[in-house]
Amino acid sequence: MCSPLLSHVAAVMAAAAVFAVGSPASAFPTNLPPGSPPFPNPWAAFQNLSGCHMGEQRQGLAGLKDYLSHFGYLPPPPSSSPFTDAFDHDLESAIATYQQNFGLNATGVLDTSTVEQMVSPRCGVADVMNGTSTMARRTRSSRGGRHLYAYFPGGPTWPPFRRDLKYAITATSATSIDRSTLSDVFARAFSRWAAATNLKFSETSSESDADITIGFYSGAHGDGEPFDGPLGTLAHAFSPTDGRFHLDAAEAWVAGAGDDDVSRSLSSTGAVDLESVAVHEIGHLLGLGHSSVPEAIMYPTIRTGTRKVELEEDDVQGIQSLYGSNPNFTPTSPATSSREMDSGGAGEGGRRPDGVFVGVAVAAVGLLLAP
Ligand SMILES: [Zn+2]
Ligand SMILES: [Zn+2]
């Protein structure tokens, strides 16, 4: 069965071919001329739209509308009339909703900080589904008394008789990360959620026996949600009880044995921490939507070079409201979470590698290793 998310997004993606720039990894240039952007980003052209506002006509706005439509902020255009480059009222209000969700000034103007947020690598799951924002609005009072986590429309969960979930790593031919490292990374990612709830997770080698399947794919891979090459969309997962979790094989994934060795290799340009993305996508597999708390695992974007694997209070409240709490659960201290959040900028100017590391797999895509 398709999730509500997929049926919505699949329709959108039919019109959003502009995102499908996913060239095969081997096609990336290995020597970029000086002054070129350090890493390809499918959304980089949005930077030319900075400052755009209501009433303007600017080349590239149609592509921005496709982006906003993909993430649920605009309905898909009728097939007879694709999006135009006109900055109309619908676009203004879509941008204002986006700005509210991400804690930006909700002016409806495409200011620099909004564009910067939009080009950040992110999860492919929509923020707005069936016209309703799944990300609670961020207001001054909301952190105090009200939760900010969200569910998928209809609140789908794994039923009470399925609390012991099996996952299978089924598609690994498109990644260079070795199998045992993948097993370790996903086991740690699942354990974050198991610790907070009464859910249990175990890996199985049998796909037919699995509730959840995990795989790496390039470009179009049969679910109407094509991946887009390095950065842009990193991964997506489906709501319960679909169980599919897909990762973009073209990302410069970093995967290792733990916090320290992963942190060292995250300073590579464009590097994305696999475990951080896995913890986020598992939240979707269990029924959580996106949160507008920037520190939450379920926040839609993640900066390159960043490791973010601890559940935040908002994530814990969200998952416990769906599945109950684990009596032995001890929340992580806020100090640990903020330490993990403060590394790296947009992949450049971050920490320097401070030595040789062992046991870390960097799923390089050619460009990463360019001199
Ligand atoms: Zn997501
Ligand atoms: Zn997919």
Automatic annotation (TrEMBL):
Chain positions recorded as Ca(2+) 2 binding sites: D211
Domain Peptidase metallopeptidase as annotated: residue spans: 154-325
The keyword Hydrolase belongs to this UniProt entry's keyword annotation: yes
Biased composition annotated in UniProt, kind: Polar residues: 320-338
InterPro entries: M10A_MMP (IPR033739), MetalloPept_cat_dom_sf (IPR024079), Pept_M10_metallopeptidase (IPR001818), Pept_M10A (IPR021190), Peptidase_Metallo (IPR006026), Peptidoglycan-bd-like (IPR002477), PGBD-like_sf (IPR036365)
Chain residues that bind Ca(2+) 3: D228, G229, D248, E251
Annotated positions binding Ca(2+) 1: E251
Active site (catalytic residues): E281
GO cellular component: extracellular matrix
Residues that, per the record, bind Zn(2+) 2: C123, H280, H284, H290, M298
First and last residue of the signal peptide: 1-27
Cofactor(s) in the UniProt record: Ca(2+); Zn(2+)
Cofactor binding: number and manner: Can bind about 5 Ca(2+) ions per subunit. Binds 2 Zn(2+) ions per subunit.
GO molecular function annotation: metalloendopeptidase activity; zinc ion binding
Ranges spanned by the short sequence motif Cysteine switch, renumbered to the chain: 121-128
Database matches in Pfam families: Peptidase_M10 (PF00413), PG_binding_1 (PF01471)
Entry binding sites for Zn(2+) 1: H221, D223, H236, H246
Keywords: Calcium, Glycoprotein, Hydrolase, Metal-binding, Metalloprotease, Protease, Signal, Zinc, Zymogen
A GO biological process held by the record: proteolysis
Region feature (Disordered): 320-352
Superkingdom of the source species: Eukaryota
Record-stated family: Belongs to the peptidase M10A family. Matrix metalloproteinases (MMPs) subfamily.
Name used for this protein in its record: Peptidase metallopeptidase domain-containing protein
Organism placement in taxonomy: Eukaryota, Viridiplantae, Streptophyta, Embryophyta, Tracheophyta
